[in-house]
Amino acid sequence: MIFTIEHLSKRFDAKEVLRDISFSFESGKIYGLLGRNGAGKTTLFNCLNGDLKADSGIYTIQDTAGTRTPVPDDIGYVLSTPTVPEFLTGREFLKFFCDIHSGRIKGIRPLDDYFDYIGIDRMDRDKLLKDYSHGMKNKMQMLINIIAQPNLLLLDEPLTSLDVVVAEEMKDVLRSIKSDRITILSTHIMDLALDMCDEIVLLSHGVLEKVDKNNLDNNDFKDKIIAALKEETNV
Ligand SMILES: Nc1ncnc2c1ncn2[C@@H]1O[C@H](COP(=O)(O)OP(=O)(O)OP(=O)(O)O)[C@@H](O)[C@H]1O
């Protein structure tokens, strides 16, 4: 499967954030999206997810069945600040999610299997989500996106606020599900991008640029990325 963006542009009043972006992403890979604060990473994700209307742009998914426009079920989006219905318990939320998507979730499992998989303790599963920690809410958000099995998984700074143990667990989860989908992960943490991602893509000056990491050791590669990002002026 290939997900292609063609001529995506987005401006807020006078500020041109995304400038005629054209780029293709391949299934089975985790892409690390690096960009400075305000470069437009969240704007890009919001446009791809349909939460924000782009000024122009065409998206297509190409697979064995042909080429088509993505539908909402193709896309999963994990926000940097997790949003969950705080008035439900973890179990109620998961049950509700599975019930409303039962027609299209493949191989639905008992709820406790999912909690085990994502590492939510038995004693926390029937607590209200409002009493979950930030990391636990983040895990729940990740979990529903894993259950939904989207073709395109967008992760906006997903690991930044997690403790080292949870972050390692989440990395393993993401690696274990990457083969069937395109994962795009935005991060400020270069070591995370180098550790996790098959491809590094810079968002700079409103355009996406793939950085070739072949033939460079990690230090050279980091220097190259920082040099490219330093060139970013306030667009
Ligand atoms: N709704 C909006 N209205 C006006 N300007 C906006 C809006 N959303 C984003 N912007 C502007 O677009 C630019 C890109 O913001 P965005 O949040 O996409 O950057 P980012 O790369 O995700 O930043 P960070 O890494 O700091 O989270 C910023 O200058 C921001 O102020």
TrEMBL record:
PROSITE patterns (UniProt xref): ABC_TRANSPORTER_1 (PS00211), ABC_TRANSPORTER_2 (PS50893)
UniProt signal peptide: none
Keyword ATP-binding on entry: yes
Pfam families in alphabetical order: ABC_tran
Keywords, ordered alphabetically: ATP-binding, Nucleotide-binding, Transport
Superkingdom, natural source: Bacteria
Family annotation (Gene3D superfamilies): P-loop containing nucleotide triphosphate hydrolases (3.40.50.300)
Every ABC transporter domain range: 3-230
GO molecular function: ATP binding; ATP hydrolysis activity
Record field: transmembrane: none
PANTHER family attached to this UniProt entry: ABC TRANSPORTER ATP-BINDING PROTEIN ALBC-RELATED
Protein's name in the database: ABC transporter domain-containing protein
